[in-house]
Here is the input.
Amino acid sequence: MASHRRPRQPGRARVSVLTATAAAAVAITSQAAQAAPQPSKNEVKAKVDKLYEEAEMATEKYNGAKEKQEKLEKEVSNLQDKVARGQEDLNDLRDGLGAMATAQYRGGGIDPSVQLLLSSDPDSYLERASTLNQLSGKQAEALSRIAEKQRTLQQQRAEAAGKLEDLDTTREALGEKKREIQGKLATARDLLNTLTAAERAELAAKEDRANRTAGQRVDLGSDVPESQRAAAALSAAQSKIGAPYVWGATGPSSFDCSGLTSWAYSQAGVGISRTSQAQANDGTRIGQSALKPGDLVFFYGDLHHVGLYAGNGQILHAPKPGANVRYESINNMPFQFGVRIG
Here is the structure.
């Protein structure tokens, strides 16, 4: 017979030991959590600034992809228009050949070659160029034009298909960069939210002072621009002091770094590239000692930031998220070279 003895219950002493052990474990865990050091305000700011820099790097890549997308969209649209017009021309040519066939029929019959052309599969016939010598001169000319038009249409359709595929890839890259930028900015916001209200207010006040200083008189020295176009570009950018930085923006009410420089030069009647890396090749490269007001100035090894030289060691630029277009010292970032737009 099976035993029905009740299991032995733990003694009171054992329960007390287990309870004490669990309590100690909770206490140790709590102490460890409390002991984990919170990042200081300066550490948070350094991390946020790094995220903003990374977001700007991604922004310039986004700008390049967006520029490519817009270019491809125009090319695809033009090719599709050409194909549509070409198809209309081909239909007209075929109608003309059909009219010739009708006239032949009324005059006593249709040439066998024309009959084949007007069959359900005339395109295959056009590939048989050797049959053209069986036709009259007028018919041969019409067939030759049809064959040439078909070849052109095939090439244009193939080119349009390739552009559409490239466009899809570019749009995908654009979406990836957009998500990357938004992710970095969201992480930066989360980091800032770990600070106390007083610390956030202190950082905001510091940024506000920097933005206000940009709108006040800055000693730009006595240097003059090298050209009227450079002067006009700098003047246009100066009219936007205080405008907010917004990634991907090209004005007129908000800008990213290359958006400001490209907009400023467009106001001077000069077209330059959209991205900072491309703008680096839009003119003659010069060293820091040769800079004149209105020259482009580039920073960081990968050239992901650009501004306008304003004179006396000051640049005018759209700095980063949360900041406005303003003057700053050229020494605040790792300068690479300047570019003078010809």
